[in-house]
Amino acid sequence: MDPLRSLKGRIGEAFVESILRRAGYKVSRIGRESQVQQMLRTGISEFLPDFLIWKQVDRAGGDASLNRVLSVEVKYRYDIPDFLQRYGGEFLLDVAEQWPELYVILVTDNPEPTRSCFQAIDLRGYRPDAPLTTADLHDLPVLDIYRSTVEEYEGLVKQVFALLGRPARSPELAQKPRAKMSGETSPIRLTAIPAFWP
Question: Of 40, 59, 60, 43, nearest to 51 (Cα)?
């Protein structure tokens, strides 16, 4: 796997985790990197979502608190429409049966015009015969995430990922050229120092 894409994926996961926490969710990592992977495996598939999230649900007149638990998978993709067309259906077929309440959040630094850097697929409405579509994360009422929160993190995605995408300068370009190679020192010019200099 491309190390830059992998790095962007991990950063995307961190951004999504932070958005979910800001929205009032408790978040627990359960994906490949987690120690609880073997405990939660539900079938023969190796897939486990990145996060389990839960938030208390308001119940009128009820004494006991009730939490809604959802699963979330996060993926970085530079070109979301291309990913959906080429691989999306195959990926979702593998996971939809075992994780029917899974939300797949796609993070991109190259969204289509008017679209968010954070887009989601809600598996509750997934049909293999229907074209795959995403909703901007703040447009999913069930997750109750404010648009202003998502926009704040969109700015971070664009700034951080732009820095990661810049080519590194070679060490030769970073060094200043030497005036003389023979070991002689250049004469030092003294300039007048202002009287107020400490």
Answer: 40
Residue 81 lies in a domain: yes
pTM of the model: 0.75
In this predicted model, what pLDDT tens digit does every residue of 21-71 receive, in sequence order?
Answer: 999 999 999 876 544 555 555 555 678 899 999 998 776 666 666 888 899
CA–CA distance, 15 with 27 (Å, rounded to integer): 12
Which range marks the domain in which residue 88 is found? 3-166
Retrieve residue 195's tokens: 């009287």
Q: Tokens in use for 177? A: 């050229």
Mutual angle of helices 3-22 and 147-165, in 10-degree steps: 160
Count the domains in the chain: 1
> Angle at Cα 149 formed by Cα 77 and Cα 133, nearest 5°?
40
In angstroms, rounded to a whole number, what is the distance separating the alpha carbons of residues 96 and 117? 24
